[in-house]
Amino acid sequence: LQCVLQVVCTCLSADSSVRVVSECVSVLTAMSDHQNLVEQLCSQHNSCVFLKLFQFIRTRLDYQATHTGLVLLDLQVVRLLGRLSQRADRWLNVENTCPCSTELVQTVVILFHHQWLHLHGSTTGSAGVSLQRCSSSSSPWWHSPAAALLRECLLLLHWLLQHHASFSDSCRPLLHMYDQMIPAVRETLRKIPDLSESEELALEEICRSEGDDTDDMDIDASS
Q: Which InterPro entries match (predicted)?
C-alpha cells in the first residue's frame, strides 16, 4: 500500500493534468473498497494524499482541461469522498490533526459553490441560459454531470454537517460562499422533479436562511 500511495502522491501535484489526477482518484476509489486500506490512506502529514488532491482541486492549474473534464473529475472526487465517509471514521475524528480534515470541508464547499455558480448562471446573469447549456437538447439539465455533481455535493455536505467533528470551524473561512449559495441551491434543486428522500432531507436541514446558518456556526464555535 505504501508503495502505491507514494506513486499516487508523486503524480498528484499542482501542475498535474486532469487525466493524471483522474487516474489517481480511480486508484484511491479501488482502495476504498477495503476497510483495512482506507484507514491507512491519511498519512497525518504534509505528504497526505488527500491534502495533495484537495489542493489540486482548489487551484485548477490545468488550463488545457475542458469544463466538462473538470466537472467529471470533481464528480469523481465527490463520489470517492462519499464512499470514504462511510468507511473512514477515524479520518473525521476530532483527534485527526492532519490538515486534510479541514481541507475536506472547505474543498466540498468550494466545489458546491463553483458548481452552483455555473448552473445558476452568475457569470452571465441568466440562469436559464446556463441551465440549458449544461445538457444536450434531447435531455433535461438535471440529467447532466453538472447537475449530478451539485446533487452529490449536497448529500456529502449534509453528511459532513452531521458527522464532521469540526465542521463549523472548518467552514468559517468560507462562510461568505456558504451563505451565498445555500438559498440559491435550494431554489435550483427544487426544480428537479426526481429528488430522492435523502436529497429532500438534505435540502430541509442544510438549505435554510443565511442568518440561521451564520447563527448556528457562531453558536457552535463559541460552545
A: ATRIP
Position of cell 480511480?
A: 26
The range of the structural domain enclosing residue 84 comes to: 2-222
Quote the CA–CA distance of 190 and 147 in Å, as a whole number: 12
* Domains contained in the chain, number: 1
Nearest alpha carbon to residue 201 among 150, 141, 149, 158: 158
Pairwise CA distance, residues 106 & 23, whole Å: 23
Are 148 and 75 within 8 A, CB to CB?
Answer: yes
CA distance 12 to 20: 8
List pLDDT tens digits, range 59-111.
888 888 898 999 999 999 999 999 988 776 666 665 667 888 889 999 999 99
